[in-house]
Amino acid sequence: xxRAVDTPYEVFTRDDAYQAGIDxxxxxxxxxxxxxxxxxxxxxxxxxVAVLERCEPAELxxxxxxxxxLAAARAALGDRARYLLATAECLDEHVPPGSVDHVVVANAIxxxxxxxxxxxxxxxxxxxxxxxxxxxxxxxxASGEDEHRLAKATLLRALRELRSTPxxxxxxxxxxxxxxELSRDSLVAALGQAGFGGVATESxxxxxxxxxxxxxxxxxxxxxxxxxxxxxxxSRPVLGKAVMEAAANxxxxxxxxxxxxxxxxxxxxxxx
Length: 272
Ligand SMILES: C[S@@+](CC[C@H](N)C(=O)[O-])C[C@H]1O[C@@H](n2cnc3c(N)ncnc32)[C@H](O)[C@@H]1O
Fold this sequence. Notes:
CATH topology: Rossmann fold
Number of helices: 11
Strand order of the largest sheet: 3-2-1-4-5-7-6
Structural class: alpha/beta
Distance between the termini: 45 Å
Oligomer: single chain
Largest sheet: 7 strands, mixed
Order of helices and strands: HHEHEHEEHEHHHEHHHE
Bound molecules: S-adenosylmethionine
Helix content: 40-55%
Radius of gyration: 19 Å
CATH class: Alpha Beta
CATH architecture: 3-Layer(aba) Sandwich
Strand content: 15-25%
C-alpha cells in the first residue's frame, strides 16, 4: 500500500531492534484471538501491524494524539483498524468504560504526561478480566555504560558542530526533560494504584545499533530533550551525524545492549 507520509518514527520502527521489541511484546502479552484490542500510543502503526498479523483481533483501535503518526497508521492499515486522536490522559472522554479486552502500549508509556491518570483511564476502558501489556526501551535503567559513553561523545560532537549556530528563543517545549523518568518501580506503583492485579515485569536486553540511536535522536522529542536550546530542525541532523561518528570511534564495535522493560497486568473481575 502507498504510504501517505514517512515520519522519523516510521524510519525508527523499521529497525531490527525495534522489531525485536515488538516481537517480544506480542509473545509476552499472549493476546488470544477475537479480542477488542486498543493500541494506545499506536503512532505510525508498527505494533498494530504485528497485532493484526499475529493476534487475530476482533477489532483494533489505534489511539494517538499525533495527527501525522495516526495518518501514517491509517495509510498502512486502512479499514483494518479504527483511529482515535486522543491522549491516554483523556481516553475516558472518548471510549466507553469496560469496552476493551486488551490494551497494548508499545514503546510509548515513557511519553505519557500523567502516568497515574493514564493508568486509571486504561483500567476504566478495560472490561473486568481485561489485560494490559506494555513495552518501553526508554526508562531509567535502559542503557548501560557503553551507551552512556556513546551518548556523552555524541553530545560533545553535536555541541562542537552547533558552536556557531544561534540558539532558539523559545524554551516552552522542555517538559519532556523536566518529567520524572519512568522506572520499573514507578510503573508497577502506578498500575497497582490504578487497581490492576497480577502485575508482572520482565527486563530483556536487546542489541541496538548506532542506526537505531541515530533514528530516535532524529525525532523532535529527543532532539529537544538532549539539546533544548536549539531548533530541532537544525539539531536533528547534527545529532544523527554525531552519533554515527562517535560510534565509529567507540570501542564496542557497533552493538549496544539496551534493556527493554516489559510489563503486563490484569483488571480484577470485581471493579473497585
Ligand atoms: C515511539 S512512538 C511508538 C509508536 C508505536 N506504539 C510503535 O510501537 O511503533 C510513541 C508514541 O506515543 C505517542 N504519545 C505521546 N504521548 C502520548 C500520550 N500522552 N498518550 C498517548 N500516546 C502518546 C506519540 O504520539 C507516539 O506516536
